[in-house]
Design goal:
6 helices
C-alpha cells in the first residue's frame, strides 16, 4: 500500500516530509532538497493536476480536505465545511504569511497553524491544547490564539499522539526556522509536527 512512498523516500533525498491522511494509504510526501512531491489523495488529484508551484508542505484532513503551502509563500486549500475556524484565518493571510499547517485528519475543525509574524492558532482537544499552551507560555514573543477549547474526553494513546523525539528533529528545525525568528521550541514543534493530534 505504501510501496510508492517507500520508493520515493529511498530514491534521492532521504529527508522527506510526509503527511498521512485519514484513509489508509493516503499521504503527501515532498523532498525539501529536490522539491519533488507525490501524493495519494483524490482531492489533490483533482485540484493539483495543473499546479506548477513547488510544494513546501501539504496537510491532509478529514473528507478530502487539505492545506498546501508552496515555496513562493502562496497557499491553496480545500476545507469544505470541515474546518470553518481555519477557513476564516486562511482568508485573511497574504502570500508568505502561513509557514506551517497541520490538520487533524480524524477530527473536523482541529488544527495548528503558525504565521510568520509569530501568531500561532491552535484548535485541538482540551488535553492537547492545554499541553501546547503550557509550553508556549514560556515564549513571550509568540501570540497564541485559541478557539473555544473542545471538550474531548478520550485519552490520546501513544500511537495517536505526539511524535517521538527521534522523529521530530527535522520538523522542529523547519518550524523554528520559519516562525517568529525561531522562537518556537522543540517541545511545541514536537507536539504539532504530526497531523494526528
Amino acid at each position: 500500500m505504501y510501496l510508492p512512498l517507500q520508493r520515493f523516500c529511498t530514491k534521492g533525498d532521504v529527508n522527506c516530509r510526509v503527511q498521512f491522511g485519514p484513509i489508509l494509504g493516503e499521504y503527501f510526501v515532498t523532498s525539501e532538497r529536490t522539491g519533488r512531491c507525490q501524493w495519494v489523495s483524490r482531492q489533490l488529484d483533482r485540484d493539483m493536476s495543473t499546479e506548477t508551484g513547488r510544494f513546501k508542505l501539504c496537510s491532509l484532513g478529514v473528507d478530502d480536505t487539505y492545506v498546501a503551502i508552496f515555496t513562493d509563500g502562496s497557499v491553496k486549500w480545500s476545507l469544505g465545511d470541515e474546518y470553518p475556524v481555519l477557513l476564516k484565518i486562511l482568508k485573511r493571510v497574504r502570500q508568505g504569511d502561513l509557514v506551517f499547517a497541520a490538520l487533524n485528519p480524524y477530527r473536523a475543525n482541529e488544527f495548528f497553524v503558525a504565521l510568520a509574524d509569530g501568531i500561532v492558532h491552535i484548535r485541538a482537544s482540551a488535553l492537547v491544547e492545554k499541553h501546547v499552551l503550557d509550553v508556549l507560555a514560556q515564549y513571550p514573543n509568540l501570540m497564541v490564539v485559541t478557539s473555544d477549547v473542545i471538550k474531548y474526553t478520550r485519552t490520546i494513546s501513544g500511537d495517536q499522539g505526539f511524535l517521538t523525539k527521534s522523529r521530530t528533529k527535522d520538523v522542529v528545525k523547519f518550524i523554528a526556522k520559519n516562525v517568529a525568528g525561531g522562537v518556537i521550541s522543540s517541545a511545541v514543534a514536537a507536539t504539532f509536527s504530526c497531523t494526528v493530534m
